[in-house]
Design a protein that fits this description.
Layout lengths: L1 E6 L3 H6 L6 E7 L3 H5 L8 E3 L4 H9 L5 E5 L14 E6 L14 H4 L4 E8 L9 E8 L6 H25 L25 E2 L6 H10 L8 E2 L11 E6 L3 H6 L8 E5 L2 E5 L4 E7 L1
Parallel strand pairs: 1-2, 1-4, 2-3, 4-5, 8-9
Antiparallel strand pairs: 5-6, 6-7, 10-13, 11-12, 12-13
Amino acid sequence: MKIIFIGNRANVLKHLIHYDEFDIEILCLKDSYLEKDIQNITKKYRLFTLQDKTRVIANIMSNPFDILISNGCPFILPTNEMKSKILINIHPTYLPHLRGKTPLNGVYFNRMKFIGATMHYMSQVVDAGNIIYQKKIKLTDDLDLGLVYFLSFYLEGVVFKKGFEMLKKNNFNYKGTEVDISSGSFFNRTKNINEISFQNMCSDEIIKIIKAFGVKSQGVKIKNKPKSLKISRIYEAVKIKNNTLLKIFSDKNPGEVVYKYDGKILIKTIDGLIKIVDFQ
């Protein structure tokens, strides 16, 4: 059997590559998590870019493969034209929660209580095909977005290893479990979704958005930024709960920088204070 793997992450491929009985063709997204690691996994792969979409799809469609495994493919594949094939996706959330292209920001944006990963069949509706195997774990207070990425991608490897063994045991004739997408959610990063306003948002809302985009490659932008605030992005902040501090600065205007120390900044919000810990 021939398998085509296409994606931008490594943990699924690390398990797949050990199945010597399959002919595996690997398509790796350029400048991705996977490209950084792929030389340690295999020397046999082809790079592609987002601009190669039409060519890549045409090559897949003309390729006599049996199974396609997507793990971070950056574009939607024409599943309706490949009905005779086994089409599998590994998604870094516990479906039907947080379907979509960039779902992990939604963990904090949607105030989820858990994270997970899902191996499922691909269908014409994004992230809605029958589930082969999935796993979730509790979201604990010591995690931030960077660790959510790490754990979610780790769990992708876990669910793939278990799910692929289930498929092999059933001679790749396993229907999977139907999922009701109406009971879940959809999340993608959209323009200005990572933007905060000290004049219009409460402290909890500001902290939520900062946590949702709290990695160096993303960060939060500030709308109607006060002149006294000489920063362009925020990566980490905490809500101030100390009653004395809240009382001292209660008469300040939202958005006003009220105190600076040790590379940290206290800013007034409409209902309190936040401390900016990491910024640019």
